[in-house]
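Weekly sync, protein design subgroup
Attendees: M.S., D.O., the rotation student, P.L. (late)

Item 1: inverse folding check
M.S. brought a backbone from last month's batch and wanted to see whether the design step gives back something sensible before we order anything. D.O. pointed out we never logged the input encoding, so this time it goes straight into the notes. Structure tokens as presented (423 positions):
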């Protein structure tokens, strides 16, 4: 706080206006406000026509047959993992089986594995784009007892796509399911297809800090109708309802064998598996429907900002590793890595940026090494995931969002110059 005040005075002396450069910003458009008002006027707040519209629009955008709306990305992962256990075509998806994922991710990926009674397992990531390293995955599985494993969950972190062709072919060899955590990659393309359409199912989060920002909303995307049927149930108390109108068939199939216990029941109150309440609301869905219309513009604006920042920041590339620019990426932020720690630590750089009004986030930490909740795995992974360990301690990101102006970006570049002594 003290340094912020001094700096503020310095700004006044030099007549430089301190800017507010956040990792994300939100501006609710008139069209979005009208959409929300239409929901309020309709007197229908729980899941209804807007949720259906969102599901159909997002499935079309991603390129899958189905989309199931959920109240968060975390719920989407949990519902998908839980539903797999009920599908005959995922015979390996048993409780306590292992799910391999990235050690460099937001904690929700791993918590969801843990809380659905699978066991998280980790392989290293690429230094360049933070994505799951397919070669490490191959080597890991060659040495593993593959009967213990049921799935691989690559994470498209910061919008960068994982190498899905390689990951899918490794998974096929060992009979493992593949789940894309695409929470941070809205519209990213990989070989011409969108992430979330490249595996058994994809999951998305439309949390406020993401590219399509709804507050709290999630989704599963998939082509697998059996999985959809179970996800629909898991997300709503294990109800015997069915999006294709097959409730009677579901109820007949699951009728109690002991006919003494049969009563006249309604699918809404007929529960053949345990489930959660992961339903969302019409307001969230209406907001998402409007925002999907802007998705391509959001991606384009972010790409332009990443390109501009990369050009301006090039002079710091002896100290910082700048993000790899790729037009297929829907950037969640502007991630970079401290290469030369003798010049500045992540902590110091973050402090200096914050005092100049530039918000930052560290890149999460390597989960089994840096997150206390998974410290029981620390010994197992020490020395085994060097890239994730380095990035977890030295990578960070700032905003590249669609509402930043050229003045904002110049201000950011200038601030880095001041901090790193290269004005
Ligand atoms: C990679 C990743 N997975 C999962 C999630 C969880 O999504 P939510 O916050 O909507 O539950 C997030 C959220 O930021 C995320 O970044």
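Designed sequence read out in the meeting:
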């Amino acid at each position: 706080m003290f340094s912020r005040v001094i700096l503020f005075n310095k700004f006044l002396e030099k007549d430089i206006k301190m800017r507010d450069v956040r990792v994300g910003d939100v501006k609710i458009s008139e069209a979005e406000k009208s959409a929300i008002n239409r929901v309020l006027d309709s007197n229908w707040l729980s899941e209804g026509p807007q949720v259906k519209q969102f599901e159909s629009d997002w499935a079309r955008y991603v390129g899958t047959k189905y989309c199931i709306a959920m109240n968060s990305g975390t719920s989407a992962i949990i519902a998908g993992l839980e539903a797999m256990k009920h599908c005959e075509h995922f015979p390996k998806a048993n409780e306590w089986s292992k799910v391999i994922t990235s050690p460099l991710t937001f904690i929700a990926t791993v918590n969801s594995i843990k809380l659905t009674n699978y066991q998280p397992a980790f392989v290293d990531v690429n230094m360049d784009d933070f994505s799951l390293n397919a070669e490490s995955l191959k080597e890991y599985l060659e040495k593993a007892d593959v009967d213990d494993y049921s799935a691989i969950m690559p994470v498209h972190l910061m919008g960068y796509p994982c190498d899905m062709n390689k990951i899918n072919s490794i998974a096929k060899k060992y009979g493992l399911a593949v789940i894309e955590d695409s929470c941070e990659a809205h519209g990213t393309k990989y070989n011409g297809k969108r992430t979330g359409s490249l595996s058994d199912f994809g999951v998305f989060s439309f949390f406020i800090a993401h590219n399509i920002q709804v507050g709290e909303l999630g989704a599963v995307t998939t082509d697998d109708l059996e999985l959809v049927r179970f996800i629909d149930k898991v997300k709503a108390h294990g109800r015997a309802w069915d999006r294709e109108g097959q409730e009677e068939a579901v109820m007949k199939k699951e009728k109690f064998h002991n006919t003494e216990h049969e009563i006249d029941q309604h699918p809404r109150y007929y529960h053949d598996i345990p489930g959660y309440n992961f339903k969302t609301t019409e307001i969230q869905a209406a907001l998402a429907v409007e925002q999907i219309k802007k998705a391509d513009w959001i991606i384009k604006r972010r790409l332009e900002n990443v390109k501009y920042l990369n050009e301006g920041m090039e002079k710091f590339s002896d100290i910082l590793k700048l993000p790899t620019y790729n037009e297929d990426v829907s950037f969640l932020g502007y991630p970079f890595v401290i290469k030369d720690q003798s010049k500045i630590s992540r902590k110091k750089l973050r402090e200096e940026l914050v005092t100049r009004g530039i918000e930052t986030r560290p890149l999460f930490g390597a989960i089994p090494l840096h997150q206390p909740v998974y410290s029981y795995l620390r010994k197992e992974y020490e020395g085994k995931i060097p890239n994730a360990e380095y990035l977890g301690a030295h990578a960070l990101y700032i905003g590249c969002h669609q509402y930043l102006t050229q003045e904002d970006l110049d201000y950011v570049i200038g601030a880095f110059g001041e901090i790193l002594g290269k004005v």
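Discussion: The first strand starts at residue 66 and ends at 70. Residues 2-27+294-420 form a domain with the Aspartate Aminotransferase, domain 1 fold (CATH 3.90.1150.10).
Action: P.L. to compare against the previous round before Friday.
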